[in-house]
Design goal:
By secondary structure, the chain is an alpha+beta fold. The chain has a domain at about 5-140 and about 145-170 and about 230-275: Jelly Rolls. Helices cover about 30% and strands about 20% of the residues. It is built from seven helices and eleven strands. The strands form two sheets. Strands 1-2-9-6-11-5-3-4 form an eight-stranded mixed β-sheet, covered by helices on one side. The relative contact order is 0.21. The structure holds succinic acid and fe (iii) ion. The site of succinic acid has 9 residues, from strand 10.
């Protein structure tokens, strides 16, 4: 499979040769998914009761850990603290894995939210825009990145052996070339108003505008969804995978119980910055897209 780079690594803290590390950095920055079939996130027996959507408090889709604080969960203080410990362990293990695979990133890594996703993927989304079973690149309306990367580590912990099934789409640059003519123009005045009103957490740059437009136009185009080159990838229970989700076109088709850790990284941290969505879009538009 062309868009998947498989490795037999079975430890969260592997000792790797520099050649292996440059192979991984090239793979991930080229827009591949690094797939670790032998690396599982272990749920302890005392934690197995937490593999249930009943701990969600209804305020959001997932349970999250952000700067040590659990969000989205309900339960006694002891339950919440055990859930926090479990999610924190995933956060630490995924951090040590990223540091081992990509040592050049260490100085630049910005750890963002950790999530535990106990709900089944199947279910009715609130709208087509929120429907992650349609291929998309990650771009968030309220959280502009100004070109920073979104690196994500996922582990499927399904206790019943259910895979997490993704579709992975065509290379970012192909999608960008196809979608570019249909993207609406950036309005810097509107971006400033949205920032002043707190609709965005920082100023939405032209890059952020284009990424959101790509996210939306891609999801809205059902012909493109069905007909662009793509592959279905089942990630079995007990495996881990890593990708730049701002670059890999992905869609979640099925599964339940997954952990996910997000990191943000500046483009300067990359070994091959020319492959990044920011540089690809700048090359295609012949413009500087960040503010
Ligand atoms: C997504 O990031 O679009 C969803 C991934 C998943 O839930 O498997
Ligand atoms: Fe996504």
């Amino acid at each position: 499979m062309q868009s998947i780079h498989t490795t037999e690594i079975s430890s969260w803290n592997p000792a790797l040769e520099p050649e292996a590390q440059s192979e991984f950095v090239h793979a991930i920055e080229s827009g591949k998914v690094i797939y670790l079939p032998n690396l599982s996130f272990e749920i302890q027996t005392s934690e197995s009761a937490y593999l249930s959507p009943s701990w969600l408090n209804g305020s959001r889709k997932n349970i999250s850990l952000d700067s040590g604080k659990v969000g989205g969960a309900k339960g006694s203080e002891e339950d919440l603290s055990r859930i926090a410990t479990m999610v924190e362990r995933f956060s630490q293990q995924s951090t040590s894995l990223v540091k081992a695979l990509f040592p050049n990133y260490i100085a630049f890594l910005n750890k963002a939210r950790t999530s535990f996703r106990p709900s089944p993927v199947e279910g009715k989304p609130a709208s087509w825009r929120k429907d992650d079973s349609r291929l998309h690149v990650d771009a968030f309306p309220s959280r502009p990145t100004n070109g920073e990367r979104i690196l994500r580590i996922f582990s499927n912990v399904n206790p019943n052996g259910l895979p997490r099934v993704w579709r992975v789409g065509e290379p970012f640059e192909d999608a960008a070339k196809f979608l570019l003519p249909s993207l609406s123009r950036y309005n810097p005045f509107l971006a400033r108003i949205q920032n002043a009103l707190g609709i965005t957490k920082s100023l939405r740059s032209e890059y952020d505008h284009m990424m959101l437009e790509m996210h939306d136009k891609m999801k809205a185009d059902t012909y493109y969804q069905d007909n662009m080159p793509q592959q279905t990838v089942p990630f079995p229970s007990g495996c881990t995978w890593i990708c730049y989700s701002d670059q890999v076109l992905h869609a979640a088709m099925g599964g339940q119980f997954m952990f996910e850790q997000t990191f943000n990284l500046p483009v300067e941290a990359l070994k091959h910055p020319d492959l990044s969505p920011l540089r690809v879009l700048e090359r295609l538009t012949l413009r500087n897209l960040t503010s």
